[in-house]
Sequence to fold (49 residues):
Amino acid sequence: MKPSPPDHSTGDESPGVPGFRTWRGVYLFVFGFFVLVVVLLAIFSRVFA
Fold:
């Protein structure tokens, strides 16, 4: 018999990261930080070129 897949319907969405209640918040923060770094790199490449 195969073991049954884990049941994620318990509502335990806490990522265990201080300041974030859901994984969606963590993902949005990481994506936003990535966009900020790309924008800053574009600005700095023009200013210091």
